[in-house]
């Protein structure tokens, strides 16, 4: 089986198969539905056990798991991993472990108890894979190493169902072979690992990936351009995606959005942020970026995995009735027909590839979004005291109001095209704006040296409703003013007392407490009211799978995991994907 | 000889070392003047890649990366430490492929870039100069005129357009050449005849693109240089004296016109370190260009600095060697 890797001289662990096939963690949360539910006890035999005040976390480990060199996996490995990282600056999670863990105990060969310095009901998140997490290291290998930070760990000793058979020193391919004893790994209880060899390759840019799959030389494509996906839909009947038809792509549990610096004059007013939102035509943005193959979201969580059921559908009635004040009058900004408009426009160029059934459109493209209403946007600007001078909006004191929109440049042309359309929309509304494409906008955002950016700052579990995952660093105690690097994902510098209360309450309840969904919905409502960022759409990845030689790929009809190859969770594909019988 | 060493060799060695010193110093200074902090860039890259890190982890990582990147201490201390590592041949670890040393990654990539660009450049330089001079000396030769038209037509077309056209035509519609890579997926680079032939087979399209686009420039340059020379007295005298045409062409015309073209060749050879970006991306070549692009996208500052330093040394060395070779081609330099 061949799958695309990102390609690197010595590939990072997420693009060469290492985190998918050889590493293993205590728990996994699937970004979609999971094979046997969203939560999977992988190396652990059961979920984390907390004491009443969340200052102790006990981990019970599964028995009968072996490293690929025949050594049994035990609590020694977990204890060693955490202890090493806690005491070794420069290793990942050193800060978290050193700052959070008072000490560890290992009462028996399958149990480790974490004694925490402060209550933390989400401490297990560090060991729970959603894309990646803290993987467990083999004590018997690393304890013999003089400098573990500089240790290359090549070849890796595997806890997964595969071992590294061979690789290209230039990073063009990595060949993995199924372990003879794959039954002694954590995925074996979920089914037979049938694929004997897996190769992660770097086939080059989108056009070459398309050509390779048409020639049946590439089983799984990580991502391609929307145009490339349309070509495969027309030219390669054996190529399938997450959705069986338009928009095909897998929506990652990440939310591309317009992120405002909430400290900039003008942008510090919610009326202005709302005006900028109502000056965006989401249908045009979806067409410009994904050729319409986008899954939109009006609220501040991605419309993916289980989230439509946790958040989007329950909040739909509230969104329909939601009002903001425009010119002293109640105004309903929600447009429940937005996805239908996108489908209608996409159908003009793609014809029958675009579904017509309203329920299918809602599932595939999303529900509603915010109205494109320049009159309401204009009134909101005036309500905020903004002035329109010579057709351009200015601050209340008449000084220029400029909102250049940063975007990812060539590294992400889809997002860049979305940003270009937003700039066009805003310019038509009289905003002084330009497209500011950056090779790497993240440090600029972290430093708060920007007005607006089309990027993402909301990453969710996808399968589990808990939003503490990303909200943690939005608490005002981690606030850092513009000009200094922030300490998490609150690059928009949003501070809100109600948000702090929601986050604090989340932290006090357990991870699976049903109140978590209520708090999550409360956050969604607050974010809509304040609009610190304008949500746009899911981060759609055009992962495309060829069914010529293999079947059983995940899809919207069998959403057992995320198929995007760089995710650690794709290890579950290898118990469901089967060679096609000749 | 003493005069040559004192008045020619030593000034050029001094110039060579000064260029490298200034270039390396600028390479050290520029990233530190950039508004983007490499530590913050690396943290941002990690957090933007699907990992939501705890604020405590971020703060700890900030401290660790500052130490790791050699950014602790005053700028002067960093500068001397930088030179100390450089003189030991240590460019530090790659930040995106930690802990693999930068020099090891460059060492893996460089042969592919040199193996493709240097032969292609020499072929296009030789063809362009030879045919350009012949076209000037034999203005009524139809095949040469046709080649000139071809060179003039292809020359202004952006490199990547020619590359994509060749790829689509010979990699997809008439699939006689591979459309990606320097060797097939699943094979290991080695010195066997079989692998070398495979390597050459994979190099045909990118090399053909380089030759096609490059030779026109050399052709026009040489034709322009020689068009004045052929009317010089000493050429007319040689013709009157009955020397053979080939003798006049090679010994009197090309040799005289070659000097600026040799300088151009040296400069271009030096820039192969940084000039392969588009070619390697289009053809999926695992060379220095691909390495540079990935380093840029992953904020691998130590890699970018390493490649820049190699490039500075490459250009400076090429120019230095050409300076040393000048006296062999030009008696005036030898005389001075």
Structure description:
The complex is a heterodimer of chains A (582) and B (336). By secondary structure, chain A is an alpha+beta fold. Chain A has three domains: 1-23 and 160-241 and 542-582, 3-Layer(aba) Sandwich (D-Maltodextrin-Binding Protein, domain 2); 25-140, Dipeptide-binding Protein, domain 1, CATH 3.90.76; 251-540, Roll (Dipeptide-binding Protein, domain 3), CATH 3.10.105. Chain A contains 17 helices and 29 strands. In chain A, strand 6 (101-108) and strand 7 (111-116) form a beta hairpin. The longest helix of chain A is centred in the C-terminal third of the chain and has 17 residues, at 413-429. Chain B is an all-alpha fold and 336 residues long. Chain B has a domain at 107-298: Orthogonal Bundle (MetI-like fold), CATH 1.10.3720.10. In chain B, 76% of the residues lie in helices and 0% in strands. The radius of gyration of chain B is 25 Å and the shape is globular. The mean pLDDT of chain B is 82. The chains are: A alpha+beta (582), B mainly alpha (336).
Summarize this, please?
The complex is a heterodimer of chains A (582) and B (336). Chain A is an alpha+beta fold.
Give a quick set of tags describing it.
heterodimer, A: 582 residues, alpha+beta, D-Maltodextrin-Binding Protein, domain 2, Dipeptide-binding Protein, domain 1, Dipeptide-binding Protein, domain 3, five-stranded mixed β-sheet, four-stranded mixed β-sheet, 17 helices, B: 336 residues, mainly alpha, MetI-like fold, 14 helices
Our measurement of the CA-to-CA distance between the termini of chain B, rounded to an integer number of angstroms, reads 12 Å
The average pLDDT of chain A is: 93
Report the uncertain regions of chain A: 6-11
Largest interface: A-B, 65 and 58 residues
Pairing-aware structural class of the strands and helices of chain A?
alpha+beta
Per CATH, the class of the domain at 107-298 in chain B reads Mainly Alpha
Strand count, sense and barrel status of the largest sheet of chain B are:
none
Oligomer: heterodimer
CATH architectural grouping of the domain at 107-298 in chain B: Orthogonal Bundle
């Amino acid at each position: 089986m061949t799958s695309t890797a990102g390609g690197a001289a010595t590939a990072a662990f997420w693009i060469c198969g290492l985190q998918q096939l050889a590493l293993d963690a205590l728990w996994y949360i699937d970004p979609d539905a999971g094979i046997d539910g969203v939560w999977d006890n992988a190396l652990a035999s059961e979920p984390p056990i907390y004491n009443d005040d969340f200052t102790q976390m006990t981990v019970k480990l599964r028995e009968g798991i072996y490293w690929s060199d025949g050594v049994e996996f035990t609590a020694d490995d977990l204890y060693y991993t955490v202890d090493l990282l806690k005491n070794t600056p420069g290793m990942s999670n050193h800060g978290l472990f050193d700052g959070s863990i008072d000490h560890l105990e290992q009462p028996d060969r399958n149990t480790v108890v974490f004694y925490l310095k402060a209550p933390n009901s989400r401490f297990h998140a560090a060991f729970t894979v959603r894309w990646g997490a803290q993987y467990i290291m083999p004590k018997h290998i690393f304890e013999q190493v003089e400098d573990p930070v500089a240790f290359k760990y090549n070849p890796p000793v595997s806890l997964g169902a595969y071992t590294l058979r061979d690789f290209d020193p230039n990073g063009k391919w990595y060949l993995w072979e199924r372990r003879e004893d794959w039954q002694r790994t954590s995925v074996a209880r979920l089914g037979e690992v049938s694929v004997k060899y897996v190769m992660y390759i770097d086939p080059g840019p989108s056009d070459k990936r398309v050509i390779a799959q048409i020639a049946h030389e590439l089983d799984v494509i990580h991502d391609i351009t929307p145009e490339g996906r349309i070509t495969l839909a027309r030219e390669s009947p054996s190529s399938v995606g997450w959705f069986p038809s338009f928009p095909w792509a897998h929506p990652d549990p990440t939310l591309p959005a317009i992120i405002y610096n909430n400290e900039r004059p003008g942008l510090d007013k919610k009326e202005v942020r709302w005006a900028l939102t109502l000056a965006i035509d989401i249908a045009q943005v979806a067409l410009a970026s994904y050729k319409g193959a986008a899954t939109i979201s009006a609220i501040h969580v991605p419309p993916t995995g289980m989230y439509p059921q946790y958040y989007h559908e329950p909040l739909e009635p509230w969104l329909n009735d939601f009002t903001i004040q425009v010119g002293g009058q109640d105004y309903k900004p929600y447009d429940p027909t937005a996805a239908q408009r996108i489908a209608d426009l996409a159908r003009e160029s793609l014809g029958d590839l675009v579904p017509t059934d309203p329920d299918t459109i809602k599932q595939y493209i999303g529900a509603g979004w915010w109205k494109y209403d320049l009159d309401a946007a204009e009134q909101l600007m005036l309500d905020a005291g903004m002035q329109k001078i010579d057709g351009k909006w200015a601050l209340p004191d008449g000084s220029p109001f400029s909102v250049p929109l940063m975007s990812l440049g060539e590294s992400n042309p889809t997002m860049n095209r979305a940003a270009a359309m937003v700039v066009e929309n805003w310019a038509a509304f009289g905003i002084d704006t330009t497209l500011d494409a950056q090779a790497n906008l993240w440090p600029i955002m972290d430093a708060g040296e920007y007005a607006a950016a089309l990027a993402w700052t909301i990453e969710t579990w996808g399968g589990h409703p808990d939003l503490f995952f990303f909200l943690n660093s939005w608490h005002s105690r981690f606030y850092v003013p513009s000009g200094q690097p922030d300490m998490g994902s609150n690059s928009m510098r949003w501070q809100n007392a109600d948000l702090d209360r929601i986050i604090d309450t989340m932290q006090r309840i357990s991870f699976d407490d049903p109140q978590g969904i209520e708090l999550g919905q409360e956050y969604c409502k607050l974010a809509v009211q304040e609009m610190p960022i304008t949500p746009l759409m899911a981060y759609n990845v055009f992962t495309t799978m060829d069914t010529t030689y293999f079947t059983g790929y995940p899809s919207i009809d069998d959403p057992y995991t995320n198929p995007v190859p760089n995710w650690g969770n794709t290890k579950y594909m290898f118990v469901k994907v089967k060679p096609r019988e000749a | 000889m003493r005069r040559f060493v004192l008045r020619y060799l030593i000034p050029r060695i001094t110039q060579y070392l000064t260029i490298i010193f200034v270039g390396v110093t600028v390479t050290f200074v520029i990233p530190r003047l950039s508004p983007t902090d490499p530590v913050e860039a690396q943290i941002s890259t990690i957090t933007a890649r699907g990992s939501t890190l705890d604020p405590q982890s971020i703060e700890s990582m900030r401290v660790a990366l500052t130490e790791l990147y050699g950014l602790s201490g005053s700028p002067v201390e960093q500068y001397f430490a930088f030179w100390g590592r450089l003189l030991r041949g240590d460019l530090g670890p790659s930040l995106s492929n930690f802990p693999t040393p930068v020099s090891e990654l460059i060492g893996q990539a460089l042969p592919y870039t040199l193996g493709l660009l240097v032969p292609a450049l020499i072929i296009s330089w030789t063809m362009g100069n030879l045919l350009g001079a012949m076209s000037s000396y034999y203005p009524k030769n139809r095949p040469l005129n046709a080649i000139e038209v071809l060179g003039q037509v292809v020359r202004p077309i952006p490199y990547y357009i020619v590359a994509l056209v060749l790829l689509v035509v010979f990699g997809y519609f008439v699939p006689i050449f591979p459309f990606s890579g320097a060797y097939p997926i699943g094979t290991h680079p080695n010195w066997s005849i079989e692998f070398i032939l495979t390597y050459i087979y994979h190099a045909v399209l990118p090399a053909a693109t380089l030759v096609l686009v490059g030779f026109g420039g050399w052709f026009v340059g040489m034709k322009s240089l020689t068009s004045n020379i052929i009317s010089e007295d000493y050429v007319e005298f040689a013709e009157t004296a009955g020397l053979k045409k080939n003798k006049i062409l090679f010994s009197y015309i090309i040799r005289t016109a070659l000097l600026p073209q040799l300088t151009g060749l040296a400069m271009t050879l030096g820039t192969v370190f940084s000039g392969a970006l588009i070619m390697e991306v289009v053809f999926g070549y695992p060379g220095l260009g691909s390495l540079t692009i990935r380093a840029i996208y992953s904020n691998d500052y130590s890699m970018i600095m390493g490649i820049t330093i190699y490039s500075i040394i490459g250009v400076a060395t090429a120019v230095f060697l050409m300076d040393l070779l000048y006296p062999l081609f030009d008696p005036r330099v030898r005389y001075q």
